[in-house]
Specification:
Blueprint lengths: L4 H10 L6 H21 L31 H5 L5 E2 L2 E2 L7
Antiparallel strand pairs: 1-2
Helix pairs in contact: 1-2
Length: 95
């Protein structure tokens, strides 16, 4: 599969990019080369190769969930530049 100039122009339009004719030609060549390389990878015999999401054996390194006491309203309001009725007060963003 190869990319045409029209394909590049279509994607540029969707991305709201203005490309010069030289840029369109350059990107067409580069994207076509990438697709040709991807097609070449399809020729590999992957029989017996397990699908992976990462090349290294990574395990979940996150801590266990544990129930803890949350920050109280008084403690949270200590850092608030402005508060009203136990809630953070912020400037209005809509008129």
């Amino acid at each position: 599969m190869s990319i045409t100039n029209q394909d590049v122009e279509h994607v540029a339009k969707l991305a709201r990019l203005e490309l010069t004719p030289e840029e369109t030609e350059t990107f067409t060549e580069q994207l076509s080369a990438i697709l040709k390389y991807a097609e070449k990878l399809g020729e590999l015999d992957t029989t017996g190769v397990e699908p992976t999401t990462h090349v290294l054996p990574i395990t979940n390194v996150m801590r266990e969930d544990e129930v803890r006491e949350s920050t109280g309203t008084e403690q949270a309001m200590k850092n608030a530049p402005d508060e009203e009725d136990g809630q953070f007060r912020v400037p209005a963003v809509l008129e």
